[in-house]
Structures are given as C-alpha cells and as structure tokens.
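step 3/5: co-fold with 1-deoxynojirimycin
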Amino acid sequence: MRLVLLSVLCHYGAVVFSQSSVVNFYVATESPIAKAGLLANIGPSGSKSSGAKAGLVIASPSTTNPDYLFTWTRDSALVFKTIIDQFTGGQDTTLRPLIDLYVTAQAALQQVSNPSGTVLTGGLAEPKFNIDGTAFTGPWGRPQRDGPALRATAFITYANWLVANTNETFVTTTLWPIIKLDLDYVMNLWNQTTQVFLISTSALLTGVYDRFDLWEEVDSSSFFTTAAQHRALRQGSALATSIGQTSVVAGYNTQAGNILCFLQSYWNPSGGFITANTGGGRSGIDANTALASIHTFDPTAGCDATTFQPCSDKALSNLKVYVDSFRSIYGINSGISANAAVATGRYPEDVYFNGNPWYLTTAAVAEQLYDSLIVWKQQGSLTITTTSLAFFKQFMPSATTGTFASSTSAFTTLTSSVQTFADDFLSIVSKYTPSNGGFSEQFDKNAGTPLSAADLTWSYASALTVFSARQGFSSAVWGAKGLTVPSGACQSFVGPTVQVTFNVVATTQFGENIFLTGSLDALQNWSPTSAIPLNANNYPTWSVVVTLPANTDFQYKYIRVFNSVVTWESDPNNEQTTPASGSFVIDDTWR
Ligand code: NOJ
Ligand code: NOJ
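step 4/5: write tokens
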C-alpha cells in the first residue's frame, strides 16, 4: 500500500515525503478499513460472518486451508478488548450494544460442556467453538489457559467503566458472575498438571492435564498465558474490592503473587530474552513475549521489569533478540541493515504454511516501541541498563548505561530513533498490505504476498491497537505499578522439592471457601490473609497441590473463610514430613 501511495505521489510532483508522513497516511487510510474488517467478522450482522451467533467473533471467514470459521476464546477476547478500549476511552461511543452482545454470548459459551470439561471442571479453557455456539468436538490442542484470563480482562475493563458510570448493578448482577467463573478457573488451575484436579469422567481425562500455548502447539507453561493470568487476577481482585465481593480477594491475591513469581522464571539471563515456552524443544524466542508485553502494558508502572513492561530492560532486550531471529530466515528481509526494521513471525522455527511473517506479530513490535515512547515521554527520562544496552546501541553505538533526562541529547536521539524504528515496522506492515487494505494472517516470506486465512479478525484488531499506541493512547491502568515478587512464594521453587496434594473433606455453605496455611514459607507462614485457596472440584473434598521442600517436617491447618470471617480448624496443628522426592498425598477431614 505504501508503494502504491509513493507512486501516486510521484505523479503529482517532486515533493519529498518524510517516512513519518507516509506512515501517517497509512494509519489514516487503514484505520477505517481495519475497523470495518473487524466488525464484519462479528455475528449476527457482520457482513462476512453470516451464521455466527450474536456476539460471537469468527476468527476469519476462511473455510478451507485453513478452516478458521470458528470462534476462539483468545481471538474474541483480544478483539473485544480492542472494542471495549475504544468504547471506554471515548473513541467510539456507539459500540456498547455490541459489547453487551459479547457479554451474553460468552455467558452462554461458558456453560457449554466441551472436550475440556464442564463450566466447573475445566471447560472454560476450551480454545474454540462452532460459530453457532455449540462445542467443537474434533481433536485440538486443548485446553488453552489464556482464554479465561483474557476474557476476564476484557470484561473487567468494561465493568470498571460501568462502575465509574453509575451502573454498578449490571456489574454485580450480570458481569461479576461471568468474570468470577473465569478468575476462579485461573486461581485454581493456572498451571496445574496434576491429577487431583481431574473429575472422574474418563472422557475428560485426556485434556485436563494439558495447557497448550497461544499457538496451539506446545503443551507446557507459556509466558503469554502466565502474564495474561497474572493481569486478570490482579484486576479481578481490585474489581472485587470495589464492588464488595471481598471473599475472593485473598485467594486471587495469593495466586497472583505465585504467578508473578513464576513469571520471573521465563527470563533467560544469558540469552537476554524471555523463553516463551518451557517445552517444545525450540529456542523459546517467540512473538508470544512481545504480545504479552503489549497486552499487560500499564502506563503507570513505568519501565518495571517485574511485569516485563514494554520499556523494561528485559522486554527491550528480548525484543531485539526476537526481531533479529527473523533477519536471515525470510527472503523479504534480506539486504535490510542489521539495525533496521524487518518482518517478523511467530517464532523462528515455525513451519505452519512453511513459516512466514505475520501482520499481527510485526505490528506488535511497533506497538511495544510506541508504548515505550509513551512512558519515556511521560516520565521525562529513559534508563539504559547493562540488560538493555544492546537494544539502545542499535541506534546510538556510543550509548552507555545510565538515566538520561529529556533535556539530554541522548534522550532526544534515542527517542526519535525508536520512533523511526517503530514507524519502520509499520511501514513493513503497510508495504505488504494489499491495495484493498485487507489483512490475512500471514504474508509470504519470499514473495510478500498475503497468505493463510483472509480477513483475520485478530490482524485487524492488532492494527487498531498499534495505531492507537502510535497516537499516544495508552490502555487502561490495571495495577502493575509497584508490584514485587512475594519472597515466600518464590522460595518454594528453590532446592529439592516434592509435590504435596492436600485433600480435606469439608462441608461448606455457598460462598464459603477453604484455605491452607502452615509453618513453611510455601504454606504462607501461618498467615490467614495470604493462605492458599483449595479448589472444590471434587466437593466435598477440597484440594490443592503445593510444592514443598523435600525431607521437611511441617505443621499446618485448614481455615474456612466466609464473608471475610476466618474460622480455624480446632487444635492441635496437623503435622507431616515430606519425603525425599516424588509426590505425597495427604487426606484429611476438617476438624
Ligand atoms: C492450527 C493452529 O491454529 C496453528 O497455530 C498451528 O500452527 C497449526 N494448527 C499447526 O499445528
Ligand atoms: C492460529 C493461531 O496460532 C492462534 O493463536 C489463533 O487463535 C487461531 N489461529 C485463530 O486465529
């Protein structure tokens, strides 16, 4: 599209157009096309989604090679997060009825039994459904545990706006029950692989152990999923507090701490990148990480590396490693200098359609850079650490570590270079956008021509979010500011450990929950407020699996929490010793 524009301009005279004005033109022309492309893929009245139930988003109208005429929970949540941000940010006030259709559609979808389970046994993480809202029962990489978290984040963004705009009743009666189902799923099952969470029906045994990544291929922990889960629980706990649903707060906060702790383990210090997947036998270099960084951007969190904010030293170092991994493997990138923008894909080892660049991943690089610029300008300085030095040296070989105020030439040089770098990624997206402005999923690594699913809804959403970021719109604050990793939870990952399953038979009333606390860091040192929540998947047996140090004596008790009132088990304390290795099951009855 950019080439077309340039040739048109050449006919009209010898005006020299700066690269940024070319990108300005692209953003202006592509924005309405992307918005229309996105809306065309939402039922019931989207022009390319006939047959889709009201409020359901089709991934793409493509029915063969690949067949994407399904609704994915992830794609839908990211698409509606974009719509909800536009609505709550005041950019488009007409979108509310559509958002309400999404609410109704997802509430129904949550209740559909599917190969991942029922609403209470894992079915919330089923990755995709038929477009009439029925279960897809064919083989698939399931479950995918980012779905419930992303959906909760979309709804919480809407809920926060409603609370601020005098419609708390709708939040409490309609949205909160939907959000709570997803968040309880995240709290209980965010990364579990152990049998204790299975229900007894053998048909469900196959999927529930698994946790597939966003690319639906790798069955292991995944950075994007973990980061999305962490964000959802933090926001959920804040929303719960604001609407008086306080019984969930302790449980969400405890698991958010554990997840934040686990999030740190993806960082690869020697490689200077985030290992996106812990399985799969790949390098781990993956767009998963840039997508996570833009999805969890919180403009008030500065360049904090704890949550891998877009401008954090770790996220910038990671971005360079990620981008560089595509320089030599795509024909269309050859001849581009080593510090200039290139087309990027999902991960360098990708073989899907022979492995090509994707529009939404190339756009994500630009978006992470625009998000960074928002923060540097807002805080009036930029910091270079040994971790981010290689990233900055791309633009200024003489760069050194330190903090550079906005009055310094280093700040000016680096921010304008990053702006140009970001615009160059958008120019690449523009260059390979066909003249009608439509976005497929991929573009050919050698020919540059559109490839795979046409009119991919997520591609359109990615264009809208990167354009907003370029204009300086930052997405909603979600509570990333000042977060620290809880030391107790982290200690449970050090040294020889065993997996201990706690089962306790306890009859409870509706709204009452069972927690565990005891004499070890990993048992939260007898704290009732940060005690570990148990799940009731096999009610009246409440269960949780905790990683404890091996060969260790410990004492513990279960507590009941109802309306924030804590009731301890009667004395004496329970006592156990963990074995040297392996796993260990404790069966108790509430006293
Ligand atoms: C379809 C998935 O959606 C895609 O991500 C994956 O690469 C291919 N199947 C091949 O496994
Ligand atoms: C394949 C992608 O890998 C996956 O992330 C996406 O959800 C589906 N296609 C549908 O767009």
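step 5/5: annotate
The CA atoms of residues 363 and 426 lie 6 Å apart.
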